[in-house]
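The data layer described in this paper is built around a simple, fixed record for each protein. Such a record has a labelled line for the sequence and another for the backbone structure tokens. For reference, a complete record is included directly beneath this paragraph.
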Amino acid sequence: DVINEELVGVAETAWSQREWTIQHVLFPSMRLFLKPNNQMATDGTFVQ
């Protein structure tokens, strides 16, 4: 039981770190480098 609780704790920590990386590294870089052209940005086709 102690080993299982420890493994769950390690998994939760790893998942929290992954979520932080996605939110603070991956999403901002996607916003920076994936820019639609003007027509797609204004008519909504880029988000489809």
